[in-house]
Automatic annotation (TrEMBL):
It is found in: Cell inner membrane; Cell membrane. Residues 310-498 form the ABC transmembrane type-1 domain. PROSITE patterns: ABC_TM1. Part of the binding-protein-dependent transport system for glutamine; probably responsible for the translocation of the substrate across the membrane. This is Amino acid ABC transporter permease. Keywords: Amino-acid transport, Cell membrane, Membrane, Transmembrane, Transmembrane helix, Transport. It comes from Bombella mellum. NCBIfam families: HEQRo_perm_3TM. InterPro entries: AA_ABC_transptr_permease_3TM, ArtM/GltK/GlnP/TcyL/YhdX-like, MetI-like, MetI-like_sf, Solute-binding_3/MltF_N. It comes from the Bacteria. Gene3D superfamilies: MetI-like, Periplasmic binding protein-like II.
Amino acid sequence: MAGLDGRAVAEGTAAAETKAAAPAAVPLRVPGAVDDHDLPWASDGEANVPYVFHDPAHEGRMTGFEYDLMQAISARMGRHGRFVQNGWDGLIPGLSRDLYALVIDGIEMTPEHKAAVLFSRPYYVTVDRIVLRNGETGLDTLEALKGHVVGTIKSTAAERLLLDHDPANVRSYDEETNLFSDLKNGRLDAILIDEPIALYYRSDDLKLVGPPIGRVAYGIAFPKNNPGLRDAVDSVLGDLISDGTLHQILARWNLWTPQMADYTGDQSLLSVKPTAWTDYRQTMERMSGSSMKAMVQRYVSFLPLVASGALMTLGVSALAMVLAVAAGLVLALARAYGMAPLRWLAGLYVEVVRGTPLLIQVLFIFYGLPAFGLRLSPFAAGVLSLGLNYAAYEAENYRAGLLSVPRGQMEAAIALNMTHIQALRLVIVPQAFRTVVPVMTNDFIALLKDSSLVSVITLTELSQTYIRLSSTYYDYIGTGLMVATAYLLVGLPFVRLARMAEKRMGRVVAKGHH
């Protein structure tokens, strides 16, 4: 969420306002739409107050001033706006792969961003502000901040200002909550941040100081190859600005500013009360309290979200492990008993997969494969990436198990007139499988934890649930204990089942020796 100087705002506005609305006779191309009335749009709704975020009073419901704006735009276009969650770093890649039609997430209209996407006219113009602890004084200008440790959000105009001014003392963050926590804890001397974020994240022990700095403008992003949809949305956005609808939305969130009045030319004074702002503040005060009643209420409200995250983690992990076991066995047999080309290909697969980061593989399967015509859902991509990754490790486990079976077992099976395949299926593989069961259990527990990486492709599992809840309420301990317990409860039954299977297989083998 970041900024733009006055020149860039003017240029962005002028460029957008020269665009006419798409002719009604020309059907709009809406990537990701499930029908003619669908308008899928993406944002990062995790710890993204006040843009698009989970309502702390009803965690299953999305809210925010950008959310309200998209509802208004969709209604004016005669469509149903459908929110699609994606992480900040994946928003534009997902847009380029036609996973959704547009992105709105406080994206600054910089020349670099304009080179990658099409923008609407700005829908919000604001400034950067300095935030200090209440006891601090004298750090109210950029010049005064020099030599002090200052935090901001990465890849923003505020970050560029700070890096140009005093690069040695800049600390960049991914999450606003971590940024403000470090200021409170004394790890930072000051924060430079967009005014809406400062307004909503500032607590009673922090203060805004100094004059506004710079100029920040946000635009709605579209793929480069879809100017028709951009022009249609831009035309509706212009109407919302002209008739005062945008003013009303921002007033409800206490975000109408002199900068917006100057930008839109709307100097009117509305009687709209900041109800959304008031509701948010009251809910946070009630839910973030340290009393026993407030804590119990908070943790009870977390249970459905943690349960939902646990089910997603379990589903992805279990299916991925099934795939890993099947594919790993095939790879192990190919390496141990296959022809030379098969052994070489299986060995190459194992080394490549084990030698590259799982995160890169997840991103490649989800964002890279569509370039080859293979577009997978986030769930399918998560299962496939985890399964194929762990298949390489399982293959080495199984190969070790196969090699641990005495060679005489194969020779004896062949002597009993079994085919090579029958000997493997009935004699060798069962003995090898028993050897690797304990290792498989450890791998499944590891896979459960690695499933957290699928959060980068829009799946909300346990770790993403923890990030959302802890960053919303600044509660890292209680929420962390709840999520850790959920991981344990998900994994323990499988450990128990593995031990039972190991004992049963041991008895079967023991009977076979008599």
